[in-house]
Amino acid sequence: MELSVDLGRNLKLKNPVLLASGTCGYGLEFENFYPLSKIGGICTKGLSYKPIEGNPTPRIVETSCGMINSIGLQNIGAKAFVEEKLPLLAKKDTKIIVNIFGYSLEEYIKVVEFLSEYQEIDGFEVNISCPNVKKGGIQFGTNPKLTKTLVSKLRKTTEKHLMIKLSPNVTDITEFAKVCEGEGADSISLINTLLGMAVNIETKKFSIKRKMGGFSGPAIKPVALRMVYQCVKAVKIPVIGIGGISNYKDALEFLLIGAKAIQIGTANFFNPSCGKEIVEGISNFLQNKGIENINQWIGSIEDE
Amino acid sequence: MKQGKLFLKNKKTYFDYAILTFLTEVEDFLNVKPGNFFMLQANTLLKKPISVMDCNKRDKMLKFLVKKIGKGTEFLYNLNPGETIDAIGPSGNSFPIDETGEYILVGGGSGIPPLYFLSKQIEKSRHTVVYGGRTKKDIVPIFGKSAPTIITTENGELGIKGTVIDGIKKVIEKNNFKKPIILSCGPEGMVKAIKKNFPDIPHYTSLERYMACGFGVCLGCVVETNEGYKRVCVDGPVFNINELKELK
Ligand SMILES: Cc1cc2nc3c(=O)[nH]c(=O)nc-3n(C[C@H](O)[C@H](O)[C@H](O)COP(=O)(O)OP(=O)(O)OC[C@H]3O[C@@H](n4cnc5c(N)ncnc54)[C@H](O)[C@@H]3O)c2cc1C
Ligand SMILES: Cc1cc2nc3c(=O)[nH]c(=O)nc-3n(C[C@H](O)[C@H](O)[C@H](O)COP(=O)(O)O)c2cc1C
Ligand code: FES
């Protein structure tokens, strides 16, 4: 059974299953549940050049088939990451994709420049789509001109694989996909969380402190599937599908419509073994169908 | 910490509370300390954090006390013997204890389970439990004669009429403790009141926060401490009260 997929520019995954940024910490906690070598790779918690405290609490609330979070990109900063986490992570036989962001163009460049020196990092995922910070992040991801400038500058900054993570909080996501491709991005990943809200009728308060937050989980899967399909049609670079994937069947749906790989987000919280289970599930499914190479499945939807 | 199954062997209910006794084949599940909790499957998307009330390695038994307050805890309350659920744990740190200590264990409402477990572990050292509730219905009869216990209810239906503050005063008066230490778990209002009334007594409390993962990766459960945000699920749930900015 051949499960490996090639995302371009030296990023070949042993299988198409990645853990999504912000839902797997810096990866090591998952070793309690299965060896990281089972999965294609991990996308680390979003890193900025300097550490960030994050938003006030409450930061999370559960909703029907999903959750809303407003973590605010709390992270230990790039320097602590390479000193404390990267050496341990590099021992694991899996790809390390470092998710990065900044509050300004300069900060994005600075963190990529700094991290590009480290051989152990296999690629970057650039978060231009976080709905949980006042400035930066989503500004870049909802304005095509800013996206263009950012991707073009980052392309000149690093030789490593550059995956751009798109925001669903726009009218036409394909516009952004095309801009990324045009400026030399190697792949795009989508979707980040949808902007959402929850209130409590007993306490008459907003359920999370910053009122609005990022909506994720099984509830967003149909929206994600639609957007991934639209982007697969719009660009030639690999598209990585994210949004509500909780089991191997969900993953196979994204691959069927043309996603080259998938990321597991919220499902890691309620089923931390899900990365391993999805790889096994995909493998068994393809075997039963007599399909020897996953690339025969990817994009094979009957599409007139 | 592991993910695995729990088989419900026995259930007892008491008003809105249920005591659930599970059996498990997962050996790591049985390496628990007072203060640890599990994320339990509960017919909601996210699992629900519930403290360990008791554990017996030989019988492969884990016990929890659950108060019905929403969809998830109602599912647990309504589970029937013979049913199996998925769980993740044990998670979290535990109460600091040593054999020479003089302890006042203070629990309110559904905060009592970790203190029951704790009182069994420190059977030989000097300690008294203060267990407070609004009414009789909030006091689950779990202790029996297993530990010296003072009960307080706000309407006086059971034990001393008043709050846990009155209970703690009574313990201090009666036991002649030299260097008492308070170990608490309960509503934040209760914990704040203890801090205000007994500012000089060392005090460790087990916090509750809304949790998504329960094993340290989502950063949803953080609490503000003197050293910045810490994760309640893995850096806690037990904290020295002086460390916590939010309870000042
Ligand atoms: C470390 C830890 C140990 C716990 N141990 C126990 C225990 O031993 N026994 C027990 O009965 N309960 C315990 N709890 C509380 C229990 O986890 C919550 O009551 C439960 O998650 C509520 O879920 P629900 O779906 O029933 O309610 P929901 O429908 O989610 O919520 C009902 C109401 O409770 C509030 N709420 C929900 N979750 C929490 C939470 N984690 N902390 C505070 N308020 C919350 C909501 O904001 C809402 O107002 C513990 C919590 C933590 C964090
Ligand atoms: C608690 C939480 C934190 C997140 N943090 C980040 C982050 O730091 N960077 C990022 O690019 N995406 C972040 N995301 C978005 C996820 O990576 C993913 O795109 C989104 O949750 C949708 O997938 P899901 O429905 O499978 O969760 C976060 C999501 C959650 C739930
Ligand atoms: S609940 Fe996820 S980090 Fe604590």
UniProtKB/TrEMBL annotation, chain B:
Residues 1-97 form the FAD-binding FR-type domain. FAD binds at G72, T73. Belongs to the PyrK family. Keywords: 2Fe-2S, Electron transport, FAD, Flavoprotein, Iron, Iron-sulfur, Metal-binding, Transport. This is Dihydroorotate dehydrogenase electron transfer subunit. [2Fe-2S] cluster binds at C213, C218, C221, C233. InterPro entries: Cyt_c3_hydrogenase_gsu, Dihydroorotate_DH_ele_sf, Dihydroorotate_DH_Fe-S-bd, FAD-bd_FR_type, FNR_nucleotide-bd, PyrK_electron_transfer, Riboflavin_synthase-like_b-brl. Its cofactor is [2Fe-2S] cluster; FAD. It comes from Thermotomaculum hydrothermale. Pfam families: DHODB_Fe-S_bind (PF10418). Binds 1 FAD per subunit. It comes from the Bacteria. GO terms for biological process: pyrimidine nucleotide biosynthetic process. GO terms for molecular function: 2 iron, 2 sulfur cluster binding; flavin adenine dinucleotide binding; metal ion binding; oxidoreductase activity.
